[in-house]
Amino acid sequence: ALTADLTREEHRTKAMAMIGITIGITFSISMVLSPLLDSVIGVPGLFALTGVLSLLAIAVVKFMIPDPAITRFHSDTEATFKKFSEVLKNKELLRLDFGIFSLHAILMSVFIQVPFVLQRNGLPLAHHWYVYLPVMLAAFALMVPPIIIAEKKAKMKQVFMGAVALAMMAQALLLFAQNSLWGVAGALLVFFTAFNVLEATLPSMISKIAPLAAKGTAMGVYSSVQFLGAFFGAAAGGALMQYVGGDAVFIFAIVLLLLWLIVTSGMRPPAAVRTRMYHLGEINEAQGAQLQQQLAQLQGVREAMVVAAEGMACLKVEMQGFDEAAAEQWVTQIAGRSA
Questions:
Q1: pTM, whole model, 2 decimals?
Q2: pLDDT (tens digit per residue) in 215-240
Q3: Which CATH number describes the domain made up of 81-265?
Q4: Sequence spans of domains, the chain
Q5: Is the sign of the CA dihedral 131, 134, 139, 140 positive or negative?
Q6: Rounded to the nearest 10 degrees, how much is the dihedral formed by the CA atoms of 128, 133, 139, 142?
């Protein structure tokens, strides 16, 4: 919400993407640094460091990030209670919610067991970054071609299902090749390549499928389910490891991925669309309704939403064939009348 208040509509998608990229990079850095830090400050020190970083984050928000001149509701980024039922009844969105739940449940459960597997293969905890660093770097590079194919070639469903199958194969490798350090490293490379592809494509698919007026709510549900999955995976992984055994964690991941693959198989391929946003300035409801009607009739426009109160027009348009010049002409015309 703060990001939305501090950015113009045309830059908001880039800003949100940068936040997502930063989170991904931070996760990768933490994977590499945590074993090193554990050898120096131990687990209590890691929790203390988390607290210190949280205090620094508060200071950054307080003293470095400006207060927005105007605080308003943004339907494209914020949840609204009125749209929850619409989002929760959308089968395609629920498939994606199950996906992000499963992905983070698997991540948390598997990495309860992986450090012990690496130690059994003779790699001390302080040296686990020897595996994590090259795996993370290679996985980031390998994720790029599938994402380009998914977006540019409109092969989103095929790439998505392929990544789920690849993640399942990685769990099978961890289960059957866990006595080989090279086997474990290879399995982690396969897993994180699939993980990165899924982590990048899931929000994109939410954006393509969710109705414009419910996009913020859809993303809110998605994010909530993501963290619920992390909690569930950590709890399930710990319980399985303690009461059943380490192999049960990988079997749990395989079963969950198989369920995800079954759920995904019935998914309709998302349309090859993108979102365009326009700043309108101050307009009244009548002007907003007129503009929405005109924009919805343009070539290549799948859905149009104009929110007069936010001074914003949002279009879901086809990747090819969208008449952007006509859209900008109508936006300029309406904005000019309100000036």
A1: 0.84
A2: 888 888 998 999 999 999 999 999 99
A3: 1.20.1250.20
A4: 1-74, 81-265, 273-338
A5: positive
A6: -140
